[in-house]
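re the bet — no i am not wrong, look at it urself. input seq straight from the record:
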Amino acid sequence: MPEDHSGDSFDYVIVGAGSAGCVLANRLSADPRNRIALIEAGPPDRHPWIHIPAGYFRTMFDPAVTWQFEAGPEPHMNGRMVSWPRGRVLGGSSSINGLLYVRGQRQDYDHWRQLGNAGWSFEDVLPFFRRAEDQERGADELHGADGPLGVSDVRWHGNTLLEAYITACVAEGIPRTDDFNGETQEGVGYYQLTNRGGRRCSSARGYLEPIKRRPNLRVITDALALGLVLDGNRVTGVRLATAAGEELVSAGREVLLASGAIGSPQILQLSGVGPGAVLRDAGVEVRHELAGVGESLQDHLQVRFIYDCNVSGASLNDIWHSKRRQLQSGLQYLLTRGGPLTIGAGVVGVFARSREGLEAPDIQFHVMPMAVERPGNNMYRFAGFTVSVCQLRPESRGTLRITSPDPRAKPGIIANYLAASEDRRVTVDGMKLMRRIAARAPFAGLVKREFAPGLDVVGDEALLEVARSTGTTVFHPTSTCRMGSDPKAVVDQRLRVRGLDGLRVVDASVMPALVSGNTNAPTIMIAEKASDMILADAKAGV
């Protein structure tokens, strides 16, 4: 019989066991006086490919462990729909992502503080990055070495194509670096991964697995949040759909929404919290008008360049199409936890400036010695090499809005990619930088052809059309419940939902603006900082 939680009462109910939720469960349950419920819509993280770093290639579009959302029709992308998979499993998207450990730039967090969010400058958040990190290189002023989140170097080196590309970048004037999370982000080098001992270190593995048997912690999987329970302006619990039917889980102190930039605003809107017109159009009673819920959405757009290379054995496409090489790679991973199965969604990275005079990089490249249309598809038959171009700080903002009172119905998402003229300019400039690097020795000598978009695509307008017709997400949605003090802000600087008691949002949706890089590490930092604020407020009786 399924376990019945309807009679249970907890101090804190955490909705979403992803990158942030597992952190909250760990830190809040460390005090045995706190009773914690951690609720996850998906299953436990038993899928074997979750724990093998390169397994993201198989899990990213697997509906057994993901929500298969879509954004669109995108008005500035030829009306296209863009796939937006998100994790639906313990660990959330940290269990299915590309594992890249990138914090963003110092300026990102200083900007958050300049927007009026006291306590969120880089100096404020650095201690929480350090507290989270188990850096295999050891601790220093910027890094921690005894945290729950394993951070390690790429365990696959010596690739001819990657080294040639790095050399070409240096020839273009981009300095070589060994730490994108150091004093400066700018440079070309190898990414670090959320990896420990050659295995993925999701938030579920790093934060939840070691403490899941604490008697004051209840982990509830396969439980869909139907909505929040409101008593006037106070949130008192969460309604769930489980195998046992509809259940109520009560929160004596707070409900903590940690369901991500899609799930958290969706749950708020389903509960009658959000823009009144949106809720009424969806057939939901307005319980608390809050104009910014689901607004201000941001995401990173990427445009891929694919090369057909003439180096045998240096591309993962060669391994994919060889049973012998597949077997060798599998054995190498089993015996040494090394080799190509330890890679993430980028092996080499580039952070560069699209033009002179910029204070910091505004372009990121993800570089992989492979070529495929998208993860989960068969690789091309040629020796492929892919570089994706991503603008780091887009100005365009989109929306997320429910269209039905049914919690199982997908929300309408418009990312609004390329709406801002600056986004279009930087994207095209990044594509031109990509081509200048590819034309440099020694990489140019290893390339047979630019497979996509192809050298017949010339001129800014043609490149922009490639971005419109082929660009896709880097899987970094944020800011749909953003922090601030203006009328469109959803949470305050302590992540409390404005106008409601007993409710916070703790995930990537609270970012005032998208960070300059991948979003997993910043989301974990947000949850680390939030846990301290929650405990401090409880002690103070706030």
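see?? The first helix runs from residue 21 to 29. told u. also The chain has 13 helices and 25 strands. so pay up
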